[in-house]
């Protein structure tokens, strides 16, 4: 039976390597093997920040399974698989041939596919009865949303005018009108401006009666309705903008993608939080790490300024200065507001000199690294483990982002609690992943966001950080 064979092979591999940094390899291997053999749907919940070596428990059953499987990977995971994990399997005689590309022959057992390729194969009916293994389940919706999205740039407008010379003047007039409206509005810290359906309507009505349209205009025309949102990514210095259009719920657009096929979905979701809308697995198992012996030291004084307070920047600088003093290791300061982050970086550099850097991939051993939450989550695996992590603000998505605002508006229109159903769970997931490294390194966490102690939902944030111990005063380390 596949489960027994995968168990024995993985046990032999782990014994030969002698370094089992993750305690649930064999359990994960049996779960994946069972799902592949039965062709059912399985959900595996991992602890946020789990050691990436857990991939071995996923790959060994795939190497022994005879049926066709599509393994959905991001570019970063694909690189790790090809450079790290597959050579580990080959070293013990396990062969896992991977077919790559936009299509795969029926004889290919394992098809290594990225999100845009998966959508193209699904639309073409090329997935057939392949089972789907998704090792980065938490990235499925954002990466599918990005793959389904349509991007209109300046060359696309020019190409549209050349293709439809009779409508060139009307197209130019509509483009100029949109440009004036977009460039006249404040674009916020992310340089994004929402574009409403009413502003799109004249162009949509014009293109609906014209044919043929060059790419990507047919896709833009087809992506209409309340389930989509548009925004402009603005470059104010150049007076240019790029038009983006994405679905709010990508799985609603490709509703049959996960239906009627075996699916293994793995990701760091907390208990009680549905990973995907409408996904009802036959088997659901949580593989959390064992209880930690040392709780995370947490510095979060009760009386702190709120992020929207006028004196918050000076409060932030004063606290960061105190936190950095006496630290011999790396300090990482997380803050999404770009203007505030750059100002804080400059002020800390005036105090601590070249130790301070902004989103550097090679910081000094005793450096101070200021970065956004997204940048840290993307790069933390390739950076040294910090001795302390400073959360200047909690990673709650801003409503100034047009995509977030549209998702919130959709929930609000249904009378749902958009903060506790959308923004707070996503923020807790990002926070748990961000602190995993400093927890393993025996470091400390400082939260300088006054909302942690002043808002009722702050208790959920503290529960998500368990186990932790209060650090009432700062001591040099």
Topology:
Elements: H1 2-17, H2 25-38, E1 41-46, H3 55-64, E2 69-72, H4 75-91, E3 98-100, E4 110-113, H5 115-124, E5 131-134, H6 140-148, E6 150-152, H7 154-163, H8 168-184, E7 192-195, H9 197-208, H10 217-222, E8 228-235, E9 240-247, H11 250-253, E10 263-267, E11 283-287, E12 296-299, H12 312-324, E13 331-334, H13 338-352, E14 356-358, E15 368-371, H14 373-379, E16 388-391, H15 402-413, H16 418-440, E17 444-447, H17 451-454, H18 458-464, E18 468-470
Helix pairs in contact: 1-2, 1-3, 2-3, 7-8, 12-13, 15-16
Textual characterization of the structure:
This protein has 477 residues and is of the alpha/beta class. It is 43% helix and 17% strand. The protein contains 18 helices and 18 strands. The protein has helices at 2-17, 25-38, 55-64, 75-91, 115-124, 140-148, 154-163, 168-184, 197-208, 217-222, 250-253, 312-324, 338-352, 373-379, 402-413, 418-440, 451-454, 458-464, and strands at residues 41-46, 69-72, 98-100, 110-113, 131-134, 150-152, 192-195, 228-235, 240-247, 263-267, 283-287, 296-299, 331-334, 356-358, 368-371, 388-391, 444-447, 468-470. The strands form three sheets. It has a seven-stranded parallel β-sheet with strand order 3-4-2-5-10-1-11. The chain has a seven-stranded parallel β-sheet with strand order 14-15-13-16-17-12-18, sandwiched between helices. Strand 8 (228-235) and strand 9 form a beta hairpin. Helix 1 packs antiparallel against helix 2 (25-38), helix 2 (25-38) packs parallel to helix 3 (55-64) and helix 15 crosses helix 16. The radius of gyration is 25 Å and the shape is globular. The N and C termini lie far apart (53 Å).
């Amino acid at each position: 039976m596949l489960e027994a064979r995968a168990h024995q092979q993985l046990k032999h591999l782990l014994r030969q390597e002698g370094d089992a940094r993750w305690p649930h390899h064999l359990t994960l291997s049996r779960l994946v093997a069972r799902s592949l053999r039965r062709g059912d749907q399985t959900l595996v919940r991992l602890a946020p920040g789990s050691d990436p070596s857990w991939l071995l428990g996923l790959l060994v059953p795939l190497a022994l399974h005879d049926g066709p499987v599509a393994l959905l990977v991001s570019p970063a995971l694909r690189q790790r698989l090809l450079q790290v994990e597959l050579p580990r399997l080959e070293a013990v005689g396990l062969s896992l041939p991977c077919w790559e590309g936009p299509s795969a022959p029926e004889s290919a057992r394992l098809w290594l596919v990225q999100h845009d390729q998966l959508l193209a194969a699904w639309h073409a009916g090329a997935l057939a009865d392949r089972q789907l293994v998704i090792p980065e389940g938490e990235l499925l919706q954002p990466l599918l949303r990005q793959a389904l999205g349509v991007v209109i740039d300046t060359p696309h407008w020019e190409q549209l005018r050349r293709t439809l010379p009779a409508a060139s003047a009307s197209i130019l007039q509509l483009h100029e009108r949109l440009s004036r409206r977009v460039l006249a509005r404040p674009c916020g810290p992310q340089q994004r401006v929402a574009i409403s359906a009413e502003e799109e309507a004249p162009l949509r009505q014009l293109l609906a009666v014209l044919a043929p349209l060059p790419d990507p205009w047919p896709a833009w025309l087809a992506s209409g309705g309340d389930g989509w949102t548009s925004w402009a990514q603005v470059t104010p210095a150049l007076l240019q903008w790029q038009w983006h259009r994405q679905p709010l719920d990508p799985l609603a657009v490709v509703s049959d993608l996960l239906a009627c096929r075996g699916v293994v979905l793995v990701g760091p979701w907390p208990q009680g939080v549905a990973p995907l809308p409408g996904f009802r697995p036959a088997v659901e198992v949580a593989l959390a790490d064992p209880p930690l012996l040392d709780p995370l030291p947490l510095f979060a004084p009760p009386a702190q300024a709120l992020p929207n307070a006028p004196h918050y920047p000076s409060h932030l600088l004063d606290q960061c200065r105190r936190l950095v003093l006496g630290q011999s290791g790396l300090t990482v300061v997380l803050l999404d507001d770009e203007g505030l982050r750059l100002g804080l970086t400059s002020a800390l550099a005036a105090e601590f000199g070249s130790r301070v850097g902004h989103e550097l991939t090679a910081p000094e051993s005793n450096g101070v690294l200021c970065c956004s939450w997204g940048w840290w989550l993307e790069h933390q695996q390739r950076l040294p483990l910090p001795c302390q992590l400073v959360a200047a603000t909690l990673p709650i998505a801003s409503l100034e982002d047009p995509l977030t605002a549209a998702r919130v508006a959709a929930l609000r229109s249904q009378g749902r609690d958009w903060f506790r159903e959308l923004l707070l769970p996503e923020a807790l997931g990002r926070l748990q992943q961000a602190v995993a490294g400093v927890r393993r390194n025996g470091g400390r966490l400082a939260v300088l966001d006054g909302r942690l102690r002043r808002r009722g939902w702050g208790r959920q944030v503290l529960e998500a950080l368990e186990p932790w111990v209060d650090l009432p005063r700062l001591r040099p380390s």
